Amino acid sequence: MSANDYEVRLLHENPGELILLYQELIKIIVQKQLINPGFFKSQNRDDIIQTINEHLLKKMPHIAKYYNGLSLLRTYVSVIIRNKCREYYRSQLKQETTYMSDQDVLLAPGIKRKVFIRKFQTTVLHEGLQYTSAQETEKHIVFEYEFRRFDAILRTFTKQKAKIELCIRYFFHIPCRTSDLKAYWPGAEKKYLKIFSGKKSSEAESTKTEKYKVLTGLINRCENKTNTNDAIRKWLADKITELIDLLNGDPQQNYFDNETFQYFVEAYYNRKENIG
Amino acid sequence: MLNTSQTEKLFNVDGHLSEEGIAIWVDALQYQKTGALPEKVKEHVENCALCKSAVVELYSVIGQEDRPLSEHPYFGGTDHQTRRAIKHDIKLWIKIAASLLILVSIAVALLFQFWHTNNSGELFAEYFSPYPNIVLKRNLVQEHQNKSFVTAMDHYNKGEFRSATQYFEKSGQVEVLSDTALFYYGNASLATGNAKQAIVLFGPLLTDSGSRFFRQAEWYYALAYLSADKPEQCLQQLKKLIDEDTHHKTEALELLRKIE
Q1: Could you read off the pLDDT of A50-96 as tens digits, one per residue?
Q2: How far is CA B64 from CA A28, B29, B68, in A?
Q3: Nearest-by-Cβ selection for A152 from B6, B10, B56
Q4: Are residues B247 and B132 in the same domain?
Q5: Same domain, A142 and A225
Q6: Which one of A82, A169, B102, B252 is CB 3.0 to 4.6 Å from B241, fit for a cystine?
Q7: How far apart are CA A99 and CA A103, in angstroms?
């Protein structure tokens, strides 16, 4: 009997024990979804876990009814836990606050005003202030986590992964290998094999316009289309935005923008090259 | 492969992935089987930012759970698991082969040992007979105030060698064992199969050629080595007996030839 079969049996025969079995899983999800990003204090963790336990206990008959056995039960329950975490986060997102505003000229001084403010706000650093530097090891751990996440993001593009990776590498001056090109276009022409042969983009191609020109030519030849440079520029910009959004997460945990994304991608492919 | 109705279960009424749809996608990332997902499910995530985000978020969280992947209801084992299973199989066969080799080696060694021991044992049994008690009881009582020694000799006379060794041991606790005691104690030990103890007991007798049991002890010393399955030392002792032309020379020569 596999671990999943055992868990399915518990689901039908002893749901309470199943919840006990998933305590570590619940803890991990709560920690990573709500505590680590700083949405809640670690002192709140046990209370949140308890809320989720109660929710799961109520939801067990629903799970038993709707789980079709196509995925692992553990992952299925993880989706439910994640949804509950998001719901919990949203419920705490806005809170009613009453405060006195001296600066609000429309209100007479001393009059209370009811407003809704975002509970979870990021601290905007003033110009000239620097983020504190964490230890190198800590940075490394954070990078590893994000690299893994980026890897998963790319894998969700089952059809366009090779194309996106090739375009990103080329666009961000990251040396492309012929294998990258062949992953996208197995019968690539010699002309393109030469361009994507592991060298950094030459100076002549280093302007964005030149880059889009090369990429448009490549995509049109491979896919037998007649895209314009502008269409490819727009497509690539959309994909980069999509990747940045996914990296930043929902609720937002990272603060990548176009510039930091480029550094991140360079680090990602450097690491990949080093690992081999 | 999933049929249409099963694939439909992976979608909500609003066209997005259901809880199970997201779960199977996360599993696919974990099991490195995204290619095996139903085409419709793959395509949806490729184009739906919402579902993609849900999949990535959950994978980022539970993908780091430190636990082995169990057999999947849809994907089966991971490639890694399959490779590991093959590796495991090879390892298993190597282990079995190694075990067999070790077993055969042990068996051969044991057979050799058994044959050798048997041979030594047979020879020992053929040539060993406990030295008869030549000490008169009257003299014993007069010479030895130690009652344990007298009792030990009584048992020795009766052929009760195990009891005899026990009393010899008791006697040794009361007084320093005499040459007589050492010699008979050694004989009794040999008779009970304790050759190592016999070697130790005969040892002091061989350092003094004037000892009453010096020559006899030399012979039994050789037999003790034979019993202890130390043929080299036994041969050495036998050659000494032959060279010194003792009255055990004939037996020693005969035994020497048999061992060689």
Answers
A1: 999 999 999 999 999 989 999 999 999 999 999 999 998 888 766 54
A2: 9, 12, 11
A3: B56
A4: yes
A5: yes
A6: B252
A7: 12
